[in-house]
């Protein structure tokens, strides 16, 4: 059960990272097409803050929860 929960959390965090990275890509490629976002830089910063948050969480999983043999491949 422990390994399944860790694997599910890692998948969840990676999904959020992917989502926020794509949002940054959209903002970079089409800044004029998103009229409700007047301050593009602030929006990019918000998205990157979310990427950093989930990346930090993955680092914490790797540091404190992965000493379980065989789980290394889920975080790396």
What's the gist of this structure?
The protein has 76 residues and is mostly helical. The chain has helices at 2-29, 40-64, 72-75. The protein is built from three helices and no strands.
Describe this structure in words.
The structure is a single chain. The protein has one domain (2-75). Helices cover 75% and strands 0% of the residues. The chain is built from 3 helices and no strands. The chain has helices at residues 2-29, 40-64, 72-75. α1 packs antiparallel against α2. The longest helix is centred in the N-terminal third of the chain and has 28 residues, at 2-29.
Q: Please state the CA-atom Rg, rounded to the nearest Å.
A: 16 Å
Number of domains: 1
Number of strands: 0
**Proportion of residues in helical segments:** over 70%
Order of helices and strands: HHH
Oligomer: single chain
Q: Catalogue the unreliable spans.
A: none
Shape: elongated
Based on helices, strands and strand pairing, what is the structural class? mainly alpha
Distance between the termini: 20 Å
Largest sheet: none
Q: What is the number of helical segments per DSSP (H or I, 4+ residues)?
A: 3
Q: What is the average of the pLDDT values? A: 87
Strand content: under 5%
